[in-house]
Amino acid sequence: MEPLTLAFLVTLGAGLATGIGSLLAFLQREPSKKFLAFMLGLSAGVMLYVSMIEIFQKAVKSLMEATGSYETGYIWATVGFFGGFIVISIIDYFIDHFYHPGHNHLETDSTLHEKDDIDIDDKTMMRTGLFMALAIGIHNFPEGLATFMATLQEPGLGLAFAFAIAIHNIPEGIAVSIPIYQATKSKAKAFWYSLVSGFAEPVGALVGFFLLSQFIDDYFFGVVFAGVAGIMVYISLDELLPSARRIDHHLPIVGVFCGMVIMALSLILFMV
């Protein structure tokens, strides 16, 4: 098989794992609210752990190699992290006003202690799902490029990297599909949204190879990965966990723990 074809197929397979996650989420006929709360917490745990332990560290390493200094690389990674955090918060502000004009977060959150089980409206669930799809798409874009380039240079390393990414993408697919299903009541729509978010992997590979290959360096990877880490932390803390807590008070933290354990084990298992 041609190296380019192999690299693309490997990257495509890693990206489509989000669809596997979506299918796993719907093994139940009707996902329960408690299952939703647990999975939102699990997804937050996955995103928080992978952002702070893996993605941010990759950013520091890339920028350290680019600048020749750990301190300088760490500073630029920190700037990129908070830059991503600010960018997604601005996007959140405009989307929030579009879906909920005049909405008061404090008023909504104050109801947490009034009931043990609180419904979340469909628009909020849809927004959560779309945010997840956006974050995962942005996150998968540079990962797809990295997988593609690694497979071209060393197929064995690329395959190992793609397999690790595929494991990461499965719970991410769950994180997209569950809230979108709750909003639309359509398993087909939820599946396709999660699958599309995974297509950012092969798109990143193609764009990188045909358009950006002359400009990609350690600076590029470092800044992008740091920004993605900031975006994923923001979404976990501002969207996933608050939504999960409005459904159930106790299961979200169990999900967070399980998500972090899954990510920790996968990173240990696929160290290369």
Summarize the structure.
The chain has 272 residues and is mainly alpha-helical. It is 84% helix and 0% strand.
Q: How would you describe what is shown here?
A:
The chain has one domain (3-26, 43-269). Helices cover 84% and strands 0% of the residues. The chain is built from eleven helices and no strands. It has helices spanning 3-15, 17-25, 33-67, 70-99, 105-109, 122-153, 155-184, 187-198, 200-212, 218-247, 251-269. Residues 101-118 have low confidence and may be disordered.
Features:
mainly alpha, 272 residues, globular, 11 helices
Fraction in helix = over 70%
The chain-level structural class is mainly alpha
Tally the helices.
11
The averaged pLDDT comes out at 78
Global geometry: globular
Characterize the largest beta sheet: strand count, sense, and whether it forms a barrel.
Answer: none
Per DSSP, what share of the residues sits in E-state strands of 2 or more residues?
under 5%
Detail the poorly predicted runs. 101-118
CA(first)-CA(last) distance: 24 Å
* H and E order: HHHHHHHHHHH
Rounded to an integer, what's the Rg over CA atoms?
19 Å
What's the β-strand tally? Answer: 0
What number of domains? 1
List strands and helices in order, with pairings.
Layout: H1 3-15, H2 17-25, H3 33-67, H4 70-99, H5 105-109, H6 122-153, H7 155-184, H8 187-198, H9 200-212, H10 218-247, H11 251-269
